[in-house]
Amino acid sequence: MKTSRPFTVLRVSIAAGIYATVALVAAVSTRPPGPTAQVDHGDAVYVGEAVCIACHKTQNNQFMHTQHAIAFRQNPKNQLQAQSCEACHGPGSNHLKDPANPANRTALIGFTREWGTPVEKQTSMCLACHQGSQAMFWPGSTHATQQLSCSDCHNPMAKISATGLLKKPTINETCYTCHQQQRGEFAKHSHMPLPEGKMSCADCHNPHGSPSKALLKADSINELCYTCHTEKRGPFLWEHAPVRDNCLNCHNAHGSNHDKLLTVARPFSCQQCHGNPGHQSTLYHAGNIIGGGAAVSSRVLGRTCQNCHVQVHGSNHPAGARFQR
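RESULT FIELD:
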């Protein structure tokens, strides 16, 4: 059979597009990495790690056990890392001119709020090595715009945590320093298994930045929840609209005093939307339970609405239009 000319042209165009895409990917993958971030240190020069240790023996005893010390001293990736102490604090020659003067703080870069080094300068020193990867979205992130520095969460001079050189023993305790509300939510009756140590804040959030809201490690709330709750993903033959819209329509992500992390106890959670004629229109209350003083209703016992509508997240049964199968 003879091939028509339009089809031949289309096939050639597709092939050309594929070849162009492959060539572009190859060019990008072989492109040399961009220049490392540089910080202006004025006329200061490097004096060497031995000079620093001669005075700062206590700091060295703490520092020598950290990941930075091991990397800088045993396997530096570049000339900057080989400077060890001065790789982060900058050249120390100006500091040596008057080391006992506490007012001479601008001679070195300090990583505490009290030291006075601008947050932008502190961060630029860290990003000289830690640019890209997890810190790719740090510029413009919530933490960056709130003027947090790396040292507000990390302590590179001491091994306090098992990983990450954090200022607290764990990721969760570090986050709790600022996020007190979430700490209270995790203490509620129904909560994510974070206090039990089965997960951490960083399982859902990237504290160094994310293109999505709330520093999520996924494109949306639902996509993040589906990473663990895959049975809720679907697609379903009968879908529940609020489930597809947002898991947070019904659940509190961190913790709740209601069953299943619900924002509102059942059946009131369901009745926020279902006020149509029928049994949904009846406003149930605590008086409907046994001993409540009013007419007892089976619809407020056990799992309430879900006693019948068991597949509330979605159903694949041909007769599951009401999520009962």
